[in-house]
Amino acid sequence: MSTTVPSTGAAGDHRAISAAALIAIYMQAVNISIPNAALPHIQATLSMANDEVGWVFSSYIAASAVTMSITQWLAGRYGRKAVYQAALAIFTFGLVLDTLATTSIQFVLARILQGAASGPLAPLSLAILLEVTPARHARMSLASTVCSLLGISTGPAIGGWLSEYYGWASIFYVSLPMTAFIFMTMASLLSEKRAERSQPFDFFGLTTFSVGMIGLQMLLDRGERLEWFASTEIWAEAVASVLGFYLFSVHVLTTREHFLRTALFRDRNLVLSTVISFALGFVLLPTLALTSPMLEELLNYPVDTTGYMTIPRGVALVGALVLTSLVPGQVDYRPFLMGGMALVVYANWLMLGYSPAMDWRPVVEAGMLQGAGLGMLLPALARAAFGTLDPKLRPEGGALINLSRLYGSTIGIAVVQLFFYANTQAVHVALAKHLTPFRVAAHGAGPIGKPSLAALNGMVTHQAATVAVIDQFEILMFAMLVVIPLVFFLRKPRPAG
């Protein structure tokens, strides 16, 4: 039961609310990836080390995942409109703090605040869309997904162009007019809605699960810098992660009600789709996190050009998503899952052929193929997950799928960053072990000085970094390859009606 303040119900009001909700979904998503192409400028200004770059993305996503989990409880307890406007206000404050940061730690903390505020925006916006357009649920759900993917896909292009011509702070200022429009529209037109009786929420389960995930995230992010278990901090993070997951597992097995109900895990399709969704997230954002630095630092492309080169991937992703969504429900979704996975694997296999001598074409071609594969996967995966699930469990099932994709992205970014720097060092040692003044002089026209030797070492470092980046695309390829067999264990969806 809920209480709702009466609204005018005018069609114009509903259109304005729908537009504001879709813009909010786009804004929440675009702020995940908008720093991507602008990273060189951000690093230079904030003296951010290379191994801290992943925090720009993972801090935002991890904070968003935590608050997204409690959105339904917050809206029921304090009111949908109140939570929505509070999230917008905090999000705006986080945007301002991003621009005022003078150190990498300040910037990451601002991103955590911004991400935490963004968590409720997408699920509440979707709920509002479905409420004001009751006759067009399928169309509105598709529109919200398209807006989210457009945000992630266009973020690097927008961020690269703005940072190149107006400074990196402008990539956050661009969201301020959107937050103002959304806030004023919802304040004037959206009716309040809250539950008459506050439902209990499993804070212990969410806390222990979050501690386990955040501890694992920090361990992967900080381990290489702190020499792993030679550091007290790494030990603390490892203990926190193990303890968090242990307490969560015991809690799930010994209590009847928790924030992820046991009934969800009795549906085979949902469980398998959750695993596939994790792999999808593992590929979706880490590819962007690898491609832009490769183009900018190794191939010397300007940041705006780097951003533009991500656009074909986004266009292919959204186009394939829309076309696959139009396939009638009677058609078996499993061939689309297999086709999408095959395209992603093939695209990542093409990325293994990248080299310093290539032009822009291989990057665009591989990106388009990967985007098309991911676009096929998303709607087919939704049909797989919810086709056999009890309709009463679908809201929680959707939350589980979203969490798995978000945490897949954060873990994926951490893993590729970790292996990138470890592989760079290993390849550098292998290539440079014979690079000594005496050995180089023996093969040259005469003695070689320290400046020339340093230049040679720079060339070796460049080659090592290139090899390391390509190796990470191989990791992403295998992440998708290993989940392909799961498709054969999916059941066909129940017939409609």
UniProtKB/TrEMBL annotation:
<feature type="transmembrane region" description="Helical">
    <location>
        <begin position="310"/>
        <end position="329"/>
    </location>
</feature>
<keyword id="KW-0812">Transmembrane</keyword>
<dbReference type="InterPro" id="IPR036259">
    <property type="entry name" value="MFS_trans_sf"/>
</dbReference>
<feature type="transmembrane region" description="Helical">
    <location>
        <begin position="226"/>
        <end position="248"/>
    </location>
</feature>
<feature type="transmembrane region" description="Helical">
    <location>
        <begin position="367"/>
        <end position="386"/>
    </location>
</feature>
<feature type="transmembrane region" description="Helical">
    <location>
        <begin position="473"/>
        <end position="490"/>
    </location>
</feature>
<feature type="domain" description="Major facilitator superfamily (MFS) profile">
    <location>
        <begin position="17"/>
        <end position="495"/>
    </location>
</feature>
<keyword id="KW-1133">Transmembrane helix</keyword>
<dbReference type="InterPro" id="IPR020846">
    <property type="entry name" value="MFS_dom"/>
</dbReference>
<feature type="transmembrane region" description="Helical">
    <location>
        <begin position="82"/>
        <end position="102"/>
    </location>
</feature>
<feature type="transmembrane region" description="Helical">
    <location>
        <begin position="168"/>
        <end position="189"/>
    </location>
</feature>
<dbReference type="GO" id="GO:0005886">
    <property type="term" value="C:plasma membrane"/>
</dbReference>
<feature type="transmembrane region" description="Helical">
    <location>
        <begin position="336"/>
        <end position="355"/>
    </location>
</feature>
<feature type="transmembrane region" description="Helical">
    <location>
        <begin position="142"/>
        <end position="162"/>
    </location>
</feature>
<dbReference type="InterPro" id="IPR011701">
    <property type="entry name" value="MFS"/>
</dbReference>
<dbReference type="GO" id="GO:0022857">
    <property type="term" value="F:transmembrane transporter activity"/>
</dbReference>
<dbReference type="GO" id="GO:0055085">
    <property type="term" value="P:transmembrane transport"/>
</dbReference>
<protein>
    <submittedName>
        <fullName>Bll6257 protein</fullName>
    </submittedName>
</protein>
<feature type="transmembrane region" description="Helical">
    <location>
        <begin position="108"/>
        <end position="130"/>
    </location>
</feature>
<feature type="transmembrane region" description="Helical">
    <location>
        <begin position="201"/>
        <end position="220"/>
    </location>
</feature>
<feature type="transmembrane region" description="Helical">
    <location>
        <begin position="55"/>
        <end position="75"/>
    </location>
</feature>
<feature type="transmembrane region" description="Helical">
    <location>
        <begin position="269"/>
        <end position="290"/>
    </location>
</feature>
<keyword id="KW-0472">Membrane</keyword>
<dbReference type="Pfam" id="PF07690">
    <property type="entry name" value="MFS_1"/>
</dbReference>
<feature type="transmembrane region" description="Helical">
    <location>
        <begin position="406"/>
        <end position="422"/>
    </location>
</feature>
